[in-house]
# Entry
Amino acid sequence: MTMQRRPADSLDASQTAMAEGLAGNALEWLLNTARTTDAGLVWGSTATDDEVDPFLYSGAAGIVLALLEAQHHFGDDRYGDAAQRGARAIAAAVDRDKDCSLYFGVTGIAFALHAVGTLLNDASAATAARSALRHVRSRFDGQRWGDMFELLAGNAGIGLGALSCGDHDLAILAVEPYLRSADPTPGGVNWAVRPSPPRSHHLAHGTLGIVVALASIGIATDRRDLIDLALAGAADVVARDEAGPDGFLVPHSDPQHRPDLIERYSYGWCNGPAGDAQAFRLLGAITDDPTWAALADRCWHTITQSGLPRRISPGFWDNNGSCCGTAGVLALACDRHVERREQSGFGAGLVDDLAARAITDARGVCWSNHEHRATPSVLEPRTGWAMGNAGIIRELLRFSRISSGRDPAYATAWPGHPIARPVTDFTDHESAETG
# Structure
C-alpha cells in the first residue's frame, strides 16, 4: 500500500473529525468485546481470548486508561463508568499474580487503579492501588523482582509506575540497584537486563528505559546521583549511533539477541528512534542542554526518512499499535507539534494510514497486525495498549485535540512518557497553528 503524504499545512477539520470518529468507533469495539463478571468488566488480549488479561501491556489495565482518555475527551460518563467497572475487576487480580512489573504485572494494575481513583474520585480504586503497591514492595528481594531488569518487566518500570502513583520511596527502592550494578563501557555505562549475555540499548528492554527511570525519579526526588547515572547510560547509547550526523539509529542489542527472530534495527517506541527520542526529550527538559534536543531531532529525521508506515519489505512496519507500531510514532509526532510548533504533515499521514488499515465490523473498529513469517500472516485484532485498540485510541484522541487547538494533555500521564510542554497557550484556538 502506498500512502499519500499530506502537505505540511493540510490539517483540517475533516481529518480532526475522522480521527475522533475512528477513536469513538474503536471504543465501541472495546465495550462490545468486554465480558461482564461478578468482579466487573474483563477483557482478554483478543476479542476471542477466554483468559482474562488484567495487565497494562495487552489487557484491561491499558483498556481502563483508554476509557479514562475517552471520558476526558468526550465528557461522556459511559466511558468513566466502564473504566470503574474494569478497575474493580483488575483490583481483584492483584493477589493472584506474582509478577510485579509495570507492563506485565501488579505495578501496571496499580497505575491504572490510581488513575481511576484520581480522575474519577473513586476511593475504592485509590485504596486498591495502594494495596497493590504494598504487594509489590513485599516481593522485592533487595535487588530486583525477577530475571528481567529493565522497563517493561523489571525494576525501571516498577520505579516509574510507583513514581506515577506518588510512592517516591518505592520508586527509589526500585532504581537504587542500578547504582550498584552499572557496568562501565567505552561510551558510558550499561546493564545486564536479562539472564543471557546480550545488552539491549533502547526503551523497552534496554539502557534507555533504565535512563528514563533514573532521570525521572532523580529529578522528582532531588537525587543527583540518579540523574548522573542516567546521563552516563544515555552516553553509552549515543556512542553506538550508526546513522549520524543527521540521523540516529542504534542496533537492537549487542551481541544481537535472538537474531533468528529480532531485526537488528527497528524504528518504533520499543527498540528504535521513536522511543529513543522520548528519552532525549526528558534529558533535555532536565538539563537544559540543547544537545539532547538535537539528538531528538536526529531521531525524527531517521523516522521520517525510513519509509514508515509503508510496508516496504517483509516484516517492515507490520504493526499499528503503540509499542512497536504507528501509534507510538504518532505520540512523538504530537509531542513535537506541542513543543516545537512543528508544521509537518507526517503525523497527519500516520493518522491517514491508521484509517486506511482500520477494520470495521458489527462491534465497531479495530486493527489487525501482521506476522510475515506465519501463514496466514493476518493476526487477530488485539484489545490492549501495546498492539491493539487501547493504545491507538489514546493517540487518535490526542491528535484530534491538538489539530483542533484543544488541550494537548493526556487525561493521565503515562509512566516514562515525558509531558509535552506547550510553547504557547493551546487553549486559545485562534492562536493555535496546525501542523
